[in-house]
Amino acid sequence: MTSHIAGRSTSLDRAAQALLAEADALARRIVAQLVHELPAYARLPREQLDGDVLTITADGVRTFARLLRSRADRRLPADYLAALSSSAAQRAEEQIPMSDVMRAYFVGAQLSLEHLDMALGPDVHTQMVELIRRTFDYLQEVTAGVADGYARERRLTLGETLSARLQLGNALVEGAPDDAVAEAALLAGVEVAPAYTVVALRVSEDRPGPADAPARRTSESTNAEVIRARLVREVRSHLLGSLDHDVLWLPNYRDALILIPFDPAERRTGLRPRDFDRVSAGLTTPVSAGIATGASAASGVSVAARTAIEVRDLVERLRRKPGCYELADVALEYQMSRPGPGQRALADLVSPLTGERDLRATLQIFIDENRHRTRTARRLGVHPNTVDNRLRRIASLTGLDPTRPHDMTRLEAAMAAALLGS
């Protein structure tokens, strides 16, 4: 038994010595192979390949050799792991994919084993199982160190980029001076567009789901903010994946503002509500949005942002179905949203419906569905004849017949005034 262990140790010692003796030459072969196999490494400057890349590669060969020689501790030295993590962070800064950085260490391990096969032949073959086990020990710690260093740098870079883009978006929305906007754009690496379409986004509280969804939402009520944040992230991921990469996303404006660049000189009018509805069609979470357009100069984006927010909030108060709305869609209601005797007089027209929950719901959906009785019935889950009966009851109580265009216009305004004044 003792002689078997001694023989195994001797074989691994020889393997370690074979790697240490040729560490620098082997490292050069590994770097050459990286340039041949991985285009990302081929793009690095020669002085960098011959500098820090070669250095960390040679250190890796020597560390692997010492791991083979070790009798007990199979953990890699802390100073090597720190250097490896730092090297991975530099590769992240150079925009080399993490998959390529990890593959580089596997390429190094493969060439090291091939070197041992050529240098020692049958002598090392007798301990192949132990050699492979220690190779996996090495690669396990190496990949963890690479992932940690790479991810840390990417988080830092992403955080700085996101912060700069937020600063630019806020400068535009707040109507900052042109020089402040230009400075924020320089930091963000973004060219300021001549104009922006501003979308004020709100995730709907009523989202579709399975039959047990209402009970589940109740049980999750204590985590409402966490759930809402997750929904907003889902919406953000979908929308930003469908829109221009120079789009600016600003959170916390109940729930977000989206600034979408365009150039009027190219005869583009900016994003329209129907365009946004098309982009958001794939969402599983309904959203409501107000939309407005403004030039980036002279506080144009700031004015557009205020308008978009007011439209979105107005649509929410009016309980309109999810979708994207511009000021023209709710111009009458926008004017009526200003308190005064006119608003109160209009609201009084539907005061006879107070307490008549089914009638008010029917009238509101009849308005939302552009006076289409079949769609109204479908949304209410009733027969179209029931809708007709309720409309006649509304006419009897208010003196205004929903089936007559003139009366319906007054009822629509009255319902809006009642909602806005409540």
From TrEMBL:
Top-level taxon: Bacteria
The PucR C-terminal helix-turn-helix domain, residue ranges: 359-417
Database matches in Pfam families: HTH_30, RsbRD_N
InterPro entries reported in the protein's UniProt record: CdaR-like_regulators, PucR_C-HTH_dom, PucR_C-HTH_sf, RsbRD_N_dom
Residues covered by the RsbT co-antagonist protein RsbRD N-terminal domain: 24-164
Record-given protein name: Helix-turn-helix domain-containing protein
Organism this protein belongs to: Cryptosporangium minutisporangium
